Amino acid sequence: MPHEIDRILRMAGQGTWFIHPAKAEQIVAALALRAQAGPRDDAAFPGTTPVALNGEARGDQRLVRVLRLHGSILPRANMMTDFSGGVAMERFQAAFRAAADDQACSAIVIDIDSPGGQVGLVPETAAMIRAAKRSDRPIIAVANTLAASAAYWIASACDEIVVTPSGEVGSIGVYCIHQEISEKLAMEGIAVTMISSGPRKTEGNPFAPLDEPARAAIAADGAAFYDMFTKDVAKARGVPVSVVRADPETAERHMGGGRCYGAQMAVKLGMADRVATLDETLQRLVKGGRSGARRASIERRRLSLI
């Protein structure tokens, strides 16, 4: 169904994205493949996985809620989640609320493997996580194995960021895509006429070149979201905004800009708190959670970066 793929591709070419650029290319390729192979059989969002293990310290049972955040981030489930895989923020929010409201839950772990995605509902999700924090119930993000861009924004809202030994975090930045397909349509004998009322109503459409006013408006939107993104990360990680925005090629202190970093370097730069697997993190939590000494150590390291 080539007409359906064209429509989805146009949707992908609109709006502001917090995503690793390589994943954007994979999505485009996946869309064409899905058109031939049909929709995915698995659910777009698997929900929550309760993990209950016996704690060794007191012999009681601790319940750790594990929320999966896998795939490209989108505000709501739609054809994109079906064609290319992904996680809908509205569904993730519902799962997180359920975990946060569970009085038996002693810890929440967000198992992340995501290159990021669209901005919709990402800052709201980060704010939801921050508001749910309690001193007696840690919220841990585990980059297992990737927490990039929008996914890193969400991870930064947690009490702690853990990276698996082969994992990566970062890609702090924003970019927008404009696809101009007028020549392609002309080759297919298709002429598009847009009829509108109101100034700039159709600017940025894919059927004409992008003019400078439209480019400036799109760039302004991206800059506003970038400002929100970097301020949230700076506050969460205890560093100045200038460090989050610094160019790694010119600044001694930085958080990588649009680059991702492996586990050890991420901890060294203050982008993450420790290196561990998901299983190791769960074992640590059911044995008593994050210790006060470890929490103080993390805070001292963050303060030393200021």
What does this molecule look like?
The structure is a single chain. The protein has twelve helices and 13 strands. The chain has a single domain, classed as 2-enoyl-CoA Hydratase, Chain A, domain 1 (Alpha-Beta Complex), CATH 3.90.226. It is α/β, with parallel strands linked by helices. Helix 1 packs antiparallel against helix 2 (21-37), helix 4 (89-101) runs parallel beside helix 5 (122-131) and helix 5 packs parallel to helix 6. The strands form three sheets. Strands 2, 3, 6, 8, 9, 10, 12 and 13 form an eight-stranded mixed β-sheet that branches. It has helices at residues 2-12, 21-37, 79-84, 89-101, 122-131, 150-156, 182-187, 212-237, 241-245, 263-269, 278-286, 292-304, and strands at 16-19, 48-54, 61-70, 73-74, 87-88, 105-114, 116-118, 139-148, 160-163, 168-170, 175-176, 260-262, 274-275.
Question: What is the fold's blueprint, element by element?
Answer:
Blueprint: H1 2-12, E1 16-19, H2 21-37, E2 48-54, E3 61-70, E4 73-74, H3 79-84, E5 87-88, H4 89-101, E6 105-114, E7 116-118, H5 122-131, E8 139-148, H6 150-156, E9 160-163, E10 168-170, E11 175-176, H7 182-187, H8 212-237, H9 241-245, E12 260-262, H10 263-269, E13 274-275, H11 278-286, H12 292-304
Parallel strand pairs: 3-6, 4-5, 6-8, 8-9, 8-10, 9-13
Antiparallel strand pairs: 1-7, 1-11, 2-3, 10-12
Helix pairs in contact: 1-2, 4-5, 5-6
